[in-house]
Amino acid sequence: xxxxxxxxxxxxxxxxxxxxxxxxxxxxxxxxxRSTVWLGDVAERAGTVLYALDHHRGSEENQSGxxxxxxxxxxxxxxxxxxxxxxxxxxxxxGLEDAVIGLIGRAPRIGASWATPLCFLFIDGGHGEExxxxxxxxxxxxxxVGGTLAIHDVFPDPADxxxxxxxxxxxxxxxxxxxxxxxxxxxxxILTRVN
Length: 195
Hints:
Layout: H1 3-19, E1 24-28, H2 34-46, E2 50-54, E3 74-75, E4 80-81, H3 84-93, E5 100-104, H4 107-111, E6 118-123, H5 129-139, E7 143-151, H6 164-175, E8 179-185, E9 188-193
Parallel strand pairs: 1-2, 1-6, 2-5, 6-7
Antiparallel strand pairs: 3-4, 7-9, 8-9
């Protein structure tokens, strides 16, 4: 996540915890914890928690043979990516272990029993069509009215990047009438739930 987008994410989260106090925040797709630090700082300042949900095996584009693969995060013992140790180190080093609650698992499985309303939801999970669509359908209903939906890697122009976050999350959120856009920085879109 570029620094300007991280700073915009922090501002949006701070606005969300002010607009809808006493509710939790949730991040879908924590990877090694870079964005989690910005959001965890807000949670700590606001006296709430940030749930950071990731299976820590990497998205499609992170797998071997793909452009964004990082061999450093592969657990040689099992031959699969494992970003959890990197995530835990990041949260520890940032001093955010009391504000950030790591949830390890697949978003659809955890989402099936999720009942906690959210003041802030950040979606930066799987970037394929099906994972993006499931994240939208499963998680956006938990955003409280007045709360915030932040979406990363939204590229309206196909020449700029992948389409699923744009087509499967961003557009359906706007078309639903439940969300209105309030800010955009780079590929980050910030929406407010209005009903």
